[in-house]
Write a structure and sequence with these properties.
The protein has helices at about 1-10, 25-35, 40, 45-55, 65-80, 85-95, 100-115; strands at about 15-20, 20-25. By secondary structure, the chain is mainly α. A two-stranded antiparallel ribbon has the order 1-2. Strand 1 and strand 2 form a beta hairpin.
Length: about 120
């Protein structure tokens, strides 16, 4: 949800803060407990959200790992002050991935985000 709000510009009404495992929203957790699944997101009629989710699922890291990488990178790059000197290194450390893997995923999704924001 954090990535959908930040990268795709869809205001879903959630506020996030960075915790050890990535961006966290108390309201989102409350909503998810009530829904008991993320079926809403997968069944979304919004073609931009559907394509974004499909691309994340096909990123080659597994859905949860790819989402974690993208969410932490986005939050460290845009919502944390002071911004870390080496965001990729921080994401790599937090997610247990090689910096090259993180850079490759970030580049792929920066390109995708630009494509989706022009449609």
């Amino acid at each position: 949800m954090y990535l959908i709000q930040k990268l795709l510009g869809k205001d879903l009404g959630y506020r996030f803060r960075l915790l050890v495992k990535g961006p966290y929203s108390r309201k989102l957790m409350s909503d998810l407990r009530r829904l008991s699944s993320i079926k809403y997101c997968r069944d979304s009629n919004d073609p931009i959200i559907r394509r974004f989710i499909r691309e994340v699922m096909n990123a080659g890291l597994g859905f949860s790992k790819a989402i974690k990488v993208l969410a932490i990178h986005t939050m460290l790059s845009t919502d944390v002050y002071p911004k870390p000197k080496n965001v990729v290194k921080e994401v790599s450390r937090a997610c247990g991935l090689d910096e090259g893997e993180v850079r490759k995923l970030i580049l792929k999704f920066k390109t995708l985000t630009k494509q989706l924001s022009t449609t």
